[in-house]
Design goal:
Layout lengths: L1 H32 L3 H9 L4 E2 L4 E2 L1 H14 L5 H11 L4 H14 L12 H7 L8 H12 L18 H5 L1 H10 L12 E2 L1 E5 L3 H17 L3 E2 L3 E6 L5 H4 L3 H13 L16 H17 L10 E3 L15 E3 L11 H12 L6 E6 L9 H17 L8 E9 L3 H18 L7 E9 L5 H19 L38 H10 L1
Parallel strand pairs: 3-5, 4-6, 4-10, 6-9, 10-11
Antiparallel strand pairs: 1-2, 7-8
Length: about 500
């Protein structure tokens, strides 16, 4: 009898098992189609794909490239993940860490080799099962990215220290950086522009940008109807950053003489803290001071501070600054340097003028502050009726990668602010279009520039009408709390195992 009953019930039990399994697979499948909180937040930040003349990058590729950069840099290693989650102050950090680390571990994002990392798995699962919403996830991404800096206030990107992974995985890193639009040349989309702005920089940056601007006007047959201005300012010069290694300087000038593409020559920007560069910088600063009658101390024309305590406001140790003669009030600045470069190398381009942005509280001018001043000048011309009935304008913004997208976003934001301040934002549009030659910086600069780009994207995503959960000061490296977390991070044995079956189907179907 028992045998008979078991034979009768066996098909029923098997049927129930098949139905349960089918339901579980379907449930896992539908969940795999639901965007992860990472995907949603990355989309809001603008990592949602793009089209260029020669390529189309979809949202998945764009977002996975970002995850690859984080993975290569070690940001998903458990100690770092635990640190970020705790400093963000999310609800129930233990559960959040457990769920996030489950996805991290399955994608193999917690080890150093990028060839073992499955970015698709992490993209589709990062943040799932947690209480994080899109704002939390955006804050997580910005906080995580800011680990790139380790950067003191006022420190320049070329002064950051190199890390071991930057040599070992350089090729993998740059492949992902290309997808993130940090590497290749950005070309003009129009044949005619209302004005052109050249982003200020160190001497080698300004020099190459002027040359590239001249090149693209000819290469693409571009007409700039109005002014061309260098967005410079009251940044004091120093030999370490404003010097140019002579062989590099000669290569750069040769491209100008032959009307060649800067993309074709092998140079590095910045070229590093080498002796030749510093000596050339000293020579240039001395000659610049002489040409403009600015007096340096005759017995000690340069000064280098050894400690922060010795530095005057706005100065930093290890930099070789001009040492001005007693009573000399004039200074050697980026603005004066830019004007000198035009006069020395490009006398035929004397139509290029400069915006001279003042330093604020001993902080050097930035992309935003110089853009604000340039925008104010342009909008005043609109108010004065210089453009008649014209309502829409396009301004060519010359820079170079890895800075193009970040500087375009920051500059566009300042332009929009100025239009609003003049109550013209409802009736006028000024579009900033960033262009420039391909990246010639080292991986340290590219990596920190990615962090700066995410900060600009975060500002846009949490702009007008949005109340962020956390002020940006809590997320940026220089203003946040970077102290270590005293609560020990959870080890592998404490990671949630209750989701193993679900995780299997998520991974299988992803």
């Amino acid at each position: 009898m028992a045998k008979y009953v078991s034979q009768k019930l066996l098909p029923i039990f098997l049927g129930i098992g098949v139905l349960a399994t089918a339901y579980y697979i379907y449930d896992a499948y539908t969940k795999s189609l639901t965007p992860s909180v990472f995907e949603s937040s990355a989309n809001i930040l603008g990592f949602n794909g793009y089209k260029k003349t020669d390529q189309t990058i979809n949202a998945a590729q764009h977002q996975e490239a970002l995850l690859k950069q984080f993975q290569i840099a070690g940001y998903f290693q458990p100690e770092n993940l635990w640190h970020t989650i705790n400093h963000l102050g999310v609800k129930d950090p233990i559960t959040t860490f457990t769920k996030m680390y489950s996805a991290v571990k399955r994608s193999k994002a917690d080890q150093s080799d990028p060839s073992k990392f499955n970015a698709k798995i992490l993209r589709k699962n990062l943040g799932k099962g947690t209480n994080l919403d899109e704002q939390d996830a955006m804050d997580f991404l910005l906080y995580t990215a800011q680990n790139a800096f380790g950067r003191k206030p006022g420190q320049e990107r070329n002064e950051l220290s190199y890390q071991d992974w930057m040599n070992k995985y350089k090729q993998d890193y740059f492949e992902a950086a290309k997808i993130l639009r940090l590497i290749d040349r950005e070309t003009p989309a129009h044949k005619e522009y209302d004005e052109a702005w050249i982003a200020g920089a160190s001497r080698i940056g300004v020099l190459t940008r002027i040359i590239d601007y001249h090149y693209i006007l000819s290469k693409y047959g571009i007409k700039v109807k109005g002014k061309t201005e260098i967005l410079a300012g009251e940044r004091g010069l120093w030999a370490n950053i404003d010097g140019i290694t002579p062989i590099v300087r000669d290569k750069i000038m040769e491209t100008y003489k032959t009307k060649s593409d800067l993309d074709t020559i092998d140079i590095s920007l910045p070229v590093g803290e080498d002796k030749e560069r510093v000596e050339e910088g000293k020579e240039y600063i001395t000659s610049l001071a002489g040409r403009y009658g600015i007096k340096l101390n005759p017995t000690a024309p340069f000064i280098q501070y050894t400690t922060k305590e010795d530095c005057p406001p706005g100065h930093f140790p290890a930099r070789l600054y001009p040492n001005y003669a007693e009573g000399e009030s004039r200074k050697l600045t980026e603005t004066l340097m830019s004007q000198d470069l035009i006069a020395t190398y490009f006398p035929s381009l004397n139509a290029i003028t400069t915006v001279d942005t003042l330093a604020e509280q001993h902080q050097r001018p930035t992309t935003s502050s110089t853009a604000r001043d340039a925008a104010t000048k342009f909008v005043k011309r609109i108010v004065d009726g210089e453009f008649g009935d014209q309502k829409e304008f396009v301004i060519l913004y010359e820079t170079n990668n890895p800075y193009v997208e970040r500087q375009e976003i920051a500059t566009q934001r300042e332009v929009n602010k100025v239009l609003k301040a003049y109550k013209l934002d409802k009736s006028y549009i000024i579009k900033i279009e960033g262009v420039g030659f391909k990246c010639k910086q080292d991986i340290t600069t590219v990596h920190s520039e990615l962090a700066a780009l995410i900060a600009e994207k975060w500002k846009t995503a949490t702009g007008e009408g949005v109340s962020p959960k956390r002020p940006i000061e809590k997320l940026l490296f220089q203003t946040r709390d970077n102290s270590s977390i005293t609560t020990p991070w959870l080890n592998n044995s404490e990671v949630d195992t209750g989701r193993v079956f679900q995780d299997f189907f998520d991974e299988y179907l992803s």
